[in-house]
Fold this protein.
Amino acid sequence: MTNAKLINITTDYMQLLKTAAGQCYQQEASDKVIKHIIEEGHLSVLEHCSATFSITCSMSVLLQLTRHRHLSFTVQSSRGSKLNSLHRTGIHQIDRSNGEVLNIYKFLIEKKGYSCEEAAYILPKAAEYKMVATGNFRTWFEYLPKRLCKRALPEHQQLAKAIHKELAFYSPEIFDRNMLHCSTCMERSCSFHVR
C-alpha cells in the first residue's frame, strides 16, 4: 500500500529561514519576508530546512522518485530482504498476473534455493519497496507540483498528496498552499492545460 509518513522535519524552521534570508541584506527577516520570497520564486533559502519521510511504494514510483536527484534515499534491499507485497492497480488482469509472478518469486526462493536478489529479476514493477527519503524544503517544494499533476501516475499522485498533507500540517507557512500550477504550466501537450 502506497503511503508516506513524516518521520523528521527541521524544528523551528521559520526561525532558520528568517536567519538565512536576513543574510542577504544583513537585516532581520520576518514571516512576511519569507512569504514574499516564496511567492517570488526565490527558493534557495528553503534549502536550509529538510523533511524526511518513511515511504512505501511500487518499483514504478520508486523509479520516478529517483529522478528527483536532490532527494536522498535509503531503499529496502532486494538482496537482503524478501519482498512480500504488490501495489494493486485495480486492473484485474494486471493485478492477477502480478500476483502470479509474486508467487513464482516466493517459490524460487523457498523451494528452488535462489537468493532473494536472483529471484527479484522476475518481479513486476508493482513490487512494493520501503524506503526513507530526505529532501530539503526546496526539493519538496519543486517535487510536489510535478507529482500532484493530473498527468502523473495515479499511485504517484497518491504519494505526493500524502507528502503534501504532512508538509502542509507541520510547516504550513511553506506548504499549506495549492501546489498545482496548471494556469502557468509550460507543458503544452497536457490535455489538462488551461488555455
The longest strand covers residues 50-58.
